[in-house]
Amino acid sequence: MTVVTARDLLNDPAFHGYRLLGGASGLDHVVRNAAQIQTGADLSRIAPGSVGVTDLGDRAGVSAQHLVEVFCRRLHGRGGRMLVIVGNVEAATQSTIRLADRFGLPLVAVAPTSIPASAAALTARLLGLVQQPELLYARAMAGVVSKLVTADTLERVVAIAAEALRGTAAVVAAEGRIVSGGLRWATPEQVTRHATITTERLPDHAWASCPVPGSGHRLWLVAETADGGPAWQEAARAVTQTAAVAAGAWVAHDRLRQERDRARLAGLLTELLQLEGAPVIPEHVARRAARAGIVLDGWHVGVHLTWGYGGEQTSADLTPQLTSALEEEGFALPVFERADGWSSWVTSPERPSEQEVGLLAARLRKVLAWFNAAYAENRSFVPLAAGVGRPATGPAAVAATLGQAHQAALTAASDGPGVVEHIDDVGPEQLMWRWFTTEAFREQAARLLAPVLAAPDSGMLLRTLDAYLTCGSSPGETAKAIGLHRNTVTQRITVLERLLGGPVASLDRLALHLACRSLTAGASRTPGGGHPAPARTPHL
């Protein structure tokens, strides 16, 4: 059976705007009765565990102050649990307040404008709540389901839970972010370590939480209040569970909407990337862009954000958070999910100056610094870097500037987290390095040189083949370059030609050389993710 404490009663609307004058240490005592007291005779009949309610009426001055102190002493002596003064707050002197603190007897003042307004009506209300604790939240809980059925936003779901439990509420994400609503006392760290419905009473507040179904333990619905005893905690378990289900339905609906938006944006981006060489933007593409709120006229500067070579994460999981971070920094951008990150562009009516493009890159660095730091403790998160393309206009502008931004972003990612590179600051050697160390090229290189890679001394043979092709297929020059005897080089080339199925001169030397460079370069990548200085250009 649910018990009711003084703290629970103070959470009832009848105590709206109350003042706790003293005796806070007794708020968690169980209340079992309520009685109106106007005289000493009333106190002699009061049962232990009762709340005493008094209305001093027109009494003022010493008479009222004396009565309140007497009521406080005698109510404590009878095992009372709380003294409520309707109106006339001045009747409680400092000595009476100190007395209430010493007794641990909550001394509460209620304005006459509260509902119910009279001491008799308030006493009747309290007596009903003590005898039937479920009435404390029955009316609020009865309306929760009907209200949640019509809740069309997550914010509305949270507001309904907060209203029902007469406190504050929020939806919290696993990484500690407040998704909706707000909390005054409970911390996200307290909430997210619990995998089931949880309630807890702490010295200054009570809170309850429930994981949101369908979120994969990524979201929790939380409610809290200052005045939450056992009755509130029991009600909070029911309300948070019901509201969490509604939040889960909203999450599923929002996820479906996001998937539709992603599909529309992905289709639009595909068409824009295929416009290279087109004299005009096709009408159906222009209409799709307009429906998505994307401007195609003017000058575009491409931006690509990536986790770079070897990263494994899904852009869709972070798109909302990244979009919000960009918006915080003033970027009103369409964000398109790509296989290795996100692409977007900034549009302006006039060609942006070099200084304006530089400022754009600086703002991007600020976004990445915050974003990488915010998710640093997430073990599955790979830090981001970014690239910026050149300003471009015309039907093929988006494809051109995004291609440049993507190239610059891959170079930036190889230099470290948070780096932002402009395409004009990326040299041809860096671009070549990024090209032939991509996973796709390395896979092709591995297929081409599979017989060599299967040999016991594959590393030695690859280095010899790379040097041999770099030195124009000269055994003598190759011997000098790698510090071997000419005969040793010749012997190794003989082995290589046997493995490759013919003389090196009769094979595709450029393909062989790039394949060698890709595999040997990949093996020599620095542990920090950077790249060594570019080697000599292949000698064709």
From TrEMBL:
Domain of life, source organism: Bacteria
Residue intervals of the CdaR GGDEF-like domain: 282-409
Domain PucR C-terminal helix-turn-helix: 461-517
InterPro entries found in the cross-reference section: CdaR-like_regulators (IPR051448), CdaR_GGDEF (IPR041522), PucR_C-HTH_dom (IPR025736), PucR_C-HTH_sf (IPR042070)
Similarity comment: Belongs to the CdaR family.
Name listed for the protein in its UniProt record: PucR family transcriptional regulator
Lineage: Bacteria, Bacillati, Actinomycetota, Actinomycetes, Streptosporangiales
